[in-house]
């Protein structure tokens, strides 16, 4: 089907209305985790100063496209969470339009509708759709680039992949992996192997000139030139290339271990085929693969996605599996967003081709995906992967309002990202900045260090900031202990390679710090509490006597 402007606009409008209505209850939420810690401050800096490199937070060297997009919306409409989340939903709808276009190009409209629906409802994609982060936008441009690539549209290929890398630098994996695959195809042009490469469609030109493949490969390399220019600019402004040294150490230097790579690869494979009810799709696909596909069903042929297109999908998926297992300090599921929808497209196409009840199978998968929004799994996961992030935000919003009302002038001991939530009112949690003493987390070692600092000699006259209250919260989702958690070696590996720690319960932290819990709340494995230290009670009594 020829994609006209009106057809694209109608499909986009339907997709946007669908996801917007699903996200209405979430639009007014204050900013969550990495939103508050990096992306919103970076976009706000661009809005206020026009700087492509943030100065109110340490630069991570992420390209500025998404931050500039948010700043444009804030400039035109106003700085509120509703505007931010609506702007991100526009990008999410455009990404889903890319999934639809790619599916329709690779298969047909029926597969495109089903694959787009499953992608939109998949918990990680759904949760990320309204969050001010860059991974989903980069994935969306990759889908558009893949669609242009399989159609042989060289200008479109260069454009969409360039936008992808300017949304997030790791998007360069897609065009570079395809370029490497096409280079290999130039070297292997004999027998049945020729059907594995996209550019073999131009074989009549290749025999004469060999130019279409060369130009096609050049278009795939163009985004690398663009991201290199960005890094050169970033280096000229900051003195480092790949983000600040701590960011580079955490995400690259500290991850280069064979043991960690194997563990992370297993996690990445799970995130690609089984995570948060994704296994329902792959299990049904495995079942369908054991059936003989009908040559015709309901009067129509049921051809598979061409081998050339499948191979392009597999190349991108495998590249992301390997690269995201090798780099990235946190093994976040959102990093695999460029790969998972490709698996969804392939699986839905298989269901459409091999099952007479494929619509019922897709409906079952959609129900399972929606259930994952609300149901937290028995294994550890990131709250940003389903509506657990809403629980986090609401817990912190209530606790920090209590803290601000009861201790407006107190110093507060807490950890990131609550430290930013309390000091930056424009994140939506407090009405004015509070004084904060920051620790890394709420593990036993950190709490003992804080207690030692508080009990140290002449602490009151020290130049170091003092604190009279503690905002303590779960920094990791805490499921019911699994059988493998009893294996000490596994806990040691998680601690060594993935920053695992156990947060002390509020009562234990209060006992160590010399205080008592005055506020606590819990929601589905997450919790937050406010601890009032004993010295605060003494100071309040002295203040009353003075008055």
Describe this structure in words.
By secondary structure, the protein is α/β, with parallel strands linked by helices. It has two domains: 5-384, no CATH class; 387-546, no CATH class. It is built from 23 helices and seven strands. The chain has helices at residues 5-23, 34-49, 65-76, 81-106, 109-121, 123-128, 135-150, 154-167, 173-187, 203-208, 211-238, 245-251, 258-273, 278-289, 307-326, 340-354, 358-374, 388-406, 418-423, 444-454, 488-498, 506-513, 534-546; strands at residues 296-297, 300-301, 411-415, 435-439, 469-473, 515-523, 526-533. A five-stranded mixed sheet has the order 4-3-5-7-6, with helices on both faces. Strand 6 (515-523) and strand 7 (526-533) form a beta hairpin. It is globular. 43% of the residues are buried. The model is unreliable at 202-211 and 536-547 (pLDDT under 50).
